[in-house]
# Entry
Amino acid sequence: MKEKVSAIKNGLDPFYNSFLEYLPFDNSRLFFHKRAIELASPNLSTRHLRYVYECIIQYIKSQYINSNIQIEDFSIFYQSVQKEKNLIQRISNKKIDSFDDWYLLESLFSNIKITINETYLVIQARILSQILPNLCPPIDISHGKHFFLKKTFEEKDIYNQVKEYTKLITEFYAPLAKEKLVQHFFNKYKKTTTWNTSYPRFLNHLVIGCVIYNKKDPEEHRPLIEAVI
# Structure
């Protein structure tokens, strides 16, 4: 993972520009996403969680088109989050570049319910990124499979999913977040798109941009991405 962190740090401009050119997100989700982030607080209000819930449903519809994912009722999702309220309040002010107790996410990842029967790493990560936006990074399923190991996204056992998610954070996202050059870059360009709603999310944008940049012309771009893809 150290090579991936270094490669992203060394390719900030081309990777971020590639992301901006492509912007692979459905703008219909932007409204729900922005409201979820704006309302995020330790209080975990019904209104906030409703926006999180709707945003995740929109994401599932756009990214899991051919799947048969079943969604829990909002009341089940809401209750599962409320059961974790004490822990969420305890870490709500923590930030990705200065947090060490990542094992605490295991309970949240495992116990918050939005899908029936199966748990999906990407979906759980996106829920956490909207409840704890300054701490938890979202993960993009299509580009993430190219950047990280594909098997990471195919894991079905929830215990192993938790391990994979915390591993991605501790070995890649958190070290990348601590890089002063990356922090400076974020502060300089965070207003270039309304999708930059948090620092952890911005880090994921760099991952997406890296994959897009590589696909443009793999041979021409090889010096920047050979340690990544």
About this structure: Confidence is low (pLDDT under 50) at residues 225-229. The first helix runs from residue 2 to 10. The radius of gyration is 17 Å.
